[in-house]
Specification:
alpha/beta, Rossmann fold, UDP-N-acetylmuramoyl-L-alanine:D-glutamate ligase, Protein-Tyrosine Phosphatase, Chain A, 10-stranded mixed sheet, 6-stranded mixed sheet, 15 helices, 21 strands
Length: 460
């Protein structure tokens, strides 16, 4: 990590390698807004790059050493390795370099009320909830969310206030480069075991994240999570807790579900009822996500009636229990769940959703996660009636032959109909032939499994 100050008068021209990514393009927009000259490169053109061009960025298609022309700073995404020709040329020209997370942390320094949403599950939803509440309550925040939020027209919104909201990812401990005034920890779970050694390593990372919050700042912590309760007592900042089952500052009470599976509940703050809340997204897990958003908004001074009004209009983000459409009278949902805890939460939400039978098409995400959490995956699908397992989406990993989706399909417990299928078109054909009216089909995973659901809804 380099010693760096974004406010230095020496930093005028910043070059982003991998600028077309959803997070990098958002960072580029923020830098342009703050008056920096921005250039960047990516392997192919896109609508995000066209938008950046229109805002004044210099865009290069392809990674080439000739793109490095004495810029003051190089920022690179996680996909850009040291052997990249632009990084190599920047080394030769002795231009400072930093990764995306460090740049995002430097941007956070420009905002007095930077909010970082951390946790192994629910970051995007909670970030979106806080963002929407603050935006519609005229707080004029700057927002960077890891998904497409229709209410802001994408994943980035540039505001003029002191409020900045972003997700804080624990992978490779990148969130330790952030500078939050408010840090939210939603949950701590075993994940990313290609990097973390074990749950103790993960808990230590979150503990260090909490220590980044200044004494006058706030940690918003889920009290129902045993791992979180282990760490927040040692934190030297204001700690605000929320939960359902464990005594907390903010508690959800009288939880009920509509016919569509949407929760309603009362919120108690320090045992006093502050209002009744209705969500337009399903599942008990979203009661927890919304409690974190309610607690954050409340301590920032958003009037309770505005929180109630604005949280109800949130209908979710793309790939989070997203209704794609219907086919043969069956509804098709797409969801990003790729961890056993997320699979269980999504299927619990589906149980409260109108349905006859639940079909789950799951695409495992990374070999290391599948191996490390295999026993948990085997128990995660019990609430489904039919389960189809596709090939593992490798993402950043090589296939070393240690695990195959067939193993997962053969050993899944508590479901009578489980099968492994490789070809997406064949999966769509099979489901289309077998589904009945009122069935619910859920494509699930962090890869490209959504293509199956999209193919199904095209067949009327």
């Amino acid at each position: 990590m380099i010693a760096f100050n974004l406010d230095s008068h020496q930093i005028q021209h910043i070059h982003l390698i991998g600028i077309g990514g959803i997070s990098m393009s958002a960072i580029a927009e923020i830098l342009l807004k703050h008056g920096y000259r921005v250039s960047g490169s990516d392997i192919k053109d896109s609508r995000l790059l066209e938008k950046l061009r229109n805002n004044g960025a210099e865009i290069y298609i392809g990674h080439n050493e000739s793109n490095i022309k004495g810029q003051d700073l190089i920022v690179y995404s996680a996909a850009i390795k040291e052997h990249n020709p632009e990084r190599q040329e920047a080394l030769r020209q002795k231009i400072p370099q930093m990764d995306r997370a460090e740049m995002l942390g430097q941007i956070m320094k420009k905002y007095k009320k930077a909010i970082a949403v951390a946790g192994c599950h629910g970051k995007t939803t909670t970030t979106s909830l806080v963002s929407l509440i603050l935006q519609k309550s005229n707080f004029d925040p700057t927002i960077l969310v890891g998904g497409e939020l229709d209410e802001i027209g994408g994943n980035i919104r540039i505001g003029e206030s002191e409020h900045f909201i972003t997700e804080a990812c624990e992978y490779v401990e990148s969130f330790l480069k952030f500078h939050p005034f408010i840090g939210i920890i939603l949950n701590i779970d075993e994940d990313h075991l290609d990097y973390f050694k074990d749950i103790h390593h993960i808990k230590n990372a979150f503990k260090r994240f909490a220590h980044l919050i200044p004494k006058e700042g706030f940690l918003i912590a889920c009290n129902d999570d045993n791992h979180i309760r282990d760490l927040y007592h040692e934190i030297d900042c204001n700690v605000v807790t929320y939960g359902i089952n464990y005594p907390s500052d903010f508690t959800a009470n009288n939880i009920n579900f509509s016919e569509e599976g949407f929760p309603s509940f009362d919120v108690l703050y320090k045992q006093e009822n502050i209002g009744s809340f209705q969500l337009s997204i399903p599942g008990l897990h979203n009661v927890y996500n919304s409690l974190a958003a309610i607690a954050t908004s409340y301590i920032l001074g958003v009037p309770t009636d505005q929180i109630i009004e604005n949280i109800k209009v949130y209908h979710g983000i793309h790939r989070r229990f997203e209704l794609l459409g219907s086919t043969k009278g069956a509804r098709v949902i797409d969801d990003y769940a790729h961890h056993p805890a997320e699979i269980k939460a999504t299927l619990e939400a589906a149980q409260k959703y109108p349905h006859r039978k639940i079909w789950c098409v799951f695409q495992p995400h990374t070999y290391t996660r599948t191996i490390a959490l295999l026993n948990d995956f085997l128990e995660a699908f019990r609430l489904a009636d039919h389960v189809i397992i596709t090939d593992i989406y490798a993402a950043r990993e090589p296939d070393e032959g240690k695990i195959h989706s067939k193993t997962l399909a053969e050993q899944i417990k508590g479901v009578e109909d489980v099968r492994y299928m490789k070809d997406f078109d064949a999966i769509a054909d099979f489901i289309y032939q077998e589904i009945q009216p009122q069935d619910l089909v859920i494509t699930m995973g962090a890869g490209d499994v959504h293509k199956i659901g999209e193919s199904l809804v095209e067949r009327k």
